[in-house]
Amino acid sequence: MPSDTDIAVDVRNAVKRYGDFTALKQISLSIRDNEFFTLLGPSGCGKTTLLRMIAGFEDVTEGAIFLFGDEIEKLPPHKRPVNTVFQNYALFPHMTVLDNVGFGLEMMGRSKTEARKRAGEVLEMVQLGQFSHRKPAQLSGGQQQRVALARALAPRPKVLLLDEPLSALDLKLRKAMQVELKHLQRETGITFIFVTHDQEEALTMSDRIAVMSAGALQQLGEAREIYERPRNVFVADFIGDTNLLDVAVDRIEQGRAQCHLGGGHQLTCDAVEGIGAGANVHMSLRPERLYLSAEPIEVESLKGRVRETIFIGTDTATIVDLADGPQFTIRSSNSTRGNARVFEPGAEVFVNMEQGAARLLVD
Amino acid sequence: MATRPYDLRRYPGFLGITILCLVILYAPLLVVTIYSFNSSPSITNWEEFSFRWYVDVFTGPESDKFKQAAWNSLIIAIIAATTATTIATLAATAVLRAGRFRLRTLSIGLISLPLMVPEIVTAVATLIFFNAIAFERGLMTILLAHIAFCIPFAYMPISARMQGIEATYEQAAQDLYATRRQAFTRILLPLMMPGIVSGFILAFIISLDDFIITNFVKGAGVETLPTAIFGAVKQGIKPNIMAISTLLLAVSIVMVTLSWIIGRKDKTS
Predict the structure, then answer these.
(1) Quick check: A92 and B269 CB within 8 A?
(2) Which among A78, A90, A103 has CB closest to B179?
(3) Considering only CA atoms, which of A168, A162, A173, A175 is closest in space to residue A38?
(4) Considering just the CA atoms, what is the radius of gyration of chain A in Å?
(5) What is the pLDDT of residues A296-318, one digit of tens each?
(6) Which residues pair with A321 in a beta bridge?
(7) Backbone torsion region of residue B188, taken as left when φ is above 0, otherwise alpha when ψ lies between -120 and 50, otherwise beta
(8) Residue A199's closest CA among A173, A219, A183?
(9) Considering only alpha carbons, which residue of chain A is nearest residue B188?
(10) CA-CA distance, B262 to B128, in Å (whole number)?
(11) pLDDT tens, A217-269?
(12) Residue A78 to residue B172, Cβ atoms within 8 A
């Protein structure tokens, strides 16, 4: 038995198979109490399956799931002290908003009066108090979303599961809800497990993120860690924009890896466990951590020619062709304080990188 | 929309065909309804407007026979429709909510097959069955036969409705600590109600106007309204038959309207 009470949900070697198809391949992860945890990945990566296994809607083919130390994977959904916010909300259309929110408490055996009282409180918390006597169909999408949230929070679950709850909202509302969800999580102190395919959403809200693909866990870590130190090509490519380069590792010295890319350009970066000299691997370079100069600044400044500059509001993206080498995208802020100089297409430039910008990836 | 893909007005003869169909469908009903208000004992010569034959239905020499038959029909229709609707609801729940199980496709087929079997075959088979088990023919045999053939009719609207209800509602209920039974009674059943009511009404009407099977399995001297009407018609068509037919038509229209109103009121899913 795990004695560690700081762990809210402990998934151990969970496997999910549908006939011949393996949806989840041996997933193990621990979700801490009181954290905003995100399962991130493209559709079909198994993130929703894992969430539904925790909720109890999918059997666990192999492995175990613990909730605060109690093994739950055999329990039916109504015996698990977790609640779900469904992607399509699944509000009961024949009940008022108040009765929807009070439903969980009523099913737990509380009196109707008590359930309604608590439901009213939770509705106030999500600023929907004045809508409590409406039917769900009379509310906007954003309001329905809040009702779904209130309904799942009302019984004070130990863990709240959220299955892409914001995907049906428009961009502006989604951004507002992201902040609100994060706020709500801090306020209630409930562990949130959030499923999304939107990497920006995941980065915005999460304490920690589990990046999944093809039924397997690719990387687990804090948002910044995953963004800055992606472990493999999938994670680097899926999270944010990046320059993915083919590089050959020439030698490893004092924790630094000397590499060269097409065209003979030299690059040195931190060595990564599992990548030795002679390896042909990928390197990730985040565009915003690169900068341009008219003259070489460092020994490893890469010489190239500007192909195109693209204005994208807050930033300018510059696409540079290295001499005989790969193409780079460099992003610089359009703030006047940033001394970003915009180079005209055709200009000869040097690409420089900040400390730690280059990252070697295992495949 | 500037041009509709199937603009009816562009089809030659559309109006003529439509009128022809409407006449074939409704002219006989119209004639019966109009002539039921005829004061003449003739069924073809119009005399003047009168409720004479309606009075005759309720107080005339044949009124006792018709009243008894109508009562039998009503009782049988209510019990048969109720029982068939219950069974159909449970069947739909099993077929649509129990996941994939062996013989599921076969089950769906078996439930709907009776709709395609010629009624006379069902009638003969039911009669032979009752004879074989030496079940004395009477009201009970009619009732049992009606329950049996009403099930597929009740099943159709119920299963159609249930297919439209996403399984996430019940999952949400179970996620909120409802047992399976509570999820069924508190969530699924209320959402299904429009389908259940439609199923009941359809079964009720089918039972009310069934003739062939009833005629085969009824005992001597036991009549339902359709068999009583048939019996009376054999001795010559009198205008009181038209009055009864018009009343039956009115009941049907009321029931169908009711079903439509209930179906329209529901905007839940």
Answers:
(1) no
(2) A78
(3) A162
(4) 25
(5) 888 788 889 999 999 888 888 99
(6) A305, A327
(7) alpha
(8) A219
(9) A92
(10) 40
(11) 999 999 999 998 899 999 999 998 899 988 999 988 888 888 988 778 888 88
(12) no
Q: Indicate the average pLDDT of chain A.
A: 89
Q: ipTM surpassing 0.85, yes or no?
A: no
Q: Residue B268 corresponds to which tokens in the numbers above?
A: 């839940």
| Interface residue B33 vs chain A (CB under 8 A) | no
Which residues in chain A have Cβ-Cβ distances shorter than 8 Å to B267? 137
pLDDT digits (tens, 9 = 90+) for B51-97: 888 998 888 888 888 999 999 999 999 999 999 999 999 999 988 88
Distance (Å, whole) CA A316 – CA A341: 10
Taking an 8 Å cut-off on Cβ atoms, the answer to whether B173 and A56 are in contact is: no
Cα separation of A195 and A297, whole Å? 44
Nearest to B224 by CA among B35, B78, B119: B78
Considering the entire predicted model, what is its pTM? 0.81
Task: Taking the CA atoms of A248, A251, A252 and A254 in sequence, report the sign of the dihedral they define.
Answer: negative
List the single best residue of B176, B265, B269 to mutate versus A (max A Cβ within 10 A): B176
| A319 beta partners | A308, A329
